[in-house]
Design a protein that fits this description.
Blueprint (H helix, E strand, L loop, with lengths): L12 H5 L8 H4 L25 H8 L16 H5 L20 H6 L17 H5 L2 H6 L8 H5 L19 H6 L3 H8 L2 H7 L8 H5 L10 H12 L3 H9 L1 H7 L8 H5 L19 H5 L26 H34 L3 H6 L1
């Protein structure tokens, strides 16, 4: 028997016997062999339909993003692309199977590595991102950690724009919550979850802050500093005023042992300031400040961490004080600029003749 490209198909009896299909006979899969009475059979047989036994996975694949790949991008994936050579398919529980929990990321990387070449399929270059993530590191120690199929499913993989996809933005908290149940519970009551449920475009969810594939340890300085900037993508004015504060100026230098967004507002259970549960509500603000400043008094919380000197209605005293200081600074520069110019002119002109005679 030969392939469509003319190469011969070699079936090793020992490898086939060790496969998950080892108990089947040839005609169980090659239905057209049952109609052939003379052997050897024709060189080319009809393609095998895995759906004859695996109808549900096959149906899921057909409606998935893999089953609808255009011919220009390589065409729809076939079962063997992920499960391995047809006559050597091993169960997913077998470590040598390309669909084993510890092997699936490498299997997906064959298309999702961003590499191009003869016969290569073009998929999002996310394999390298995942390889450096905290999830991939955890997979080196335990199979409890998530792999590609835990988030995207195995056969019925849908685009993230599909409302039925587990990685569709409104569905992401539930998908992440299968492992991070406590964080899912805390997020569920937050103002972010409220906006997400309301269908607000760009409403924050897990991947907004932690990213989808390159998840890093939240205890690292790099992640905590990046999280400040991430909050600023939605809260631009708050980030700008934070940068003007002593907290923001220290973090801008690359130091993390000062208050950052999550230190005051919490990370998952973010509530409105008017909510009594909020860590920055008037009744809880002093307790929050005392986590870093144990001796803080009620007067201490009068400090404005997001003071905007341009907001006259909210902070009139700061507005006029800043206006006065700007005017004072400008007048000093103007005065000394004029003084310097006059002194320069005097030096250029020199003393008058009359002054020199009397001298």
């Amino acid at each position: 028997m030969v392939r469509a490209d003319g190469r011969p198909v070699v079936v090793r009896p020992d490898a086939f016997a060790a496969s998950i299909h080892g108990g089947l006979s040839c005609i169980d899969c090659h239905a057209d062999l049952a109609t052939v009475s003379d052997f050897p059979h024709p060189e080319r047989l009809a393609p095998v339909s895995c759906a004859s036994c695996h109808d549900e996975p096959a149906a899921g694949l057909m409606r998935s993003v893999h089953g609808t790949v255009s011919a220009a991008a390589g065409g729809a994936l076939q079962c063997a692309a992920c499960h391995g050579p047809p006559h050597q398919i091993k169960p997913s529980s077998d470590f040598e199977s390309p669909t084993h929990k510890l092997q699936i990321a490498e299997t997906c990387a064959e298309c999702h590595s961003g590499l191009t070449g003869p016969g290569a399929r073009r998929g999002p270059a996310v394999a390298g991102m995942f390889a450096d993530s905290i999830h991939a590191m955890a997979l080196e120690r335990t199979t409890v950690a998530p792999a590609c199929t835990d988030c995207h499913h195995s056969h019925d993989i849908l685009r993230k724009t599909d409302a039925k996809s587990p990685v569709h933005p409104p569905n992401i908290p539930a998908a992440c919550g299968t492992c991070h149940g406590e964080q899912r519970r805390l997020f569920g009551d937050s103002v972010h979850a409220e906006r997400l449920a309301a269908g607000s475009p760009g409403a924050p969810q897990c991947a907004s802050c932690h990213t989808a594939h390159r998840m890093a340890a939240t205890a690292s300085d790099e992640w905590q500093l990046a999280a400040v900037e991430q909050c600023g993508t939605c809260h631009r004015e708050a980030l700008a005023t934070y940068r003007d504060s002593v907290h923001g100026q220290v973090t801008a230098l690359g130091f993390t042992p000062v208050a950052k967004c999550a230190d005051c507002h919490e990370s998952h259970q973010v509530y409105r300031v008017t909510d009594a549960r909020s860590s920055v509500s008037p009744q809880n603000l002093l307790t929050t400040c005392r986590t870093c400043h144990p001796s803080a008094t009620p007067n201490f919380v009068q400090f404005q961490p997001h003071a905007n000197k341009e907001d006259r209605d909210r902070l009139p005293a700061l507005y006029y004080a800043a206006l006065f200081m700007d005017g004072l600074l400008l007048s000093v520069f103007v005065f000394f600029a004029a003084h310097t110019l006059l002194w320069f002119a005097r030096e250029r002109i020199g003393p008058s003749d009359e002054g020199a005679h009397h001298g």
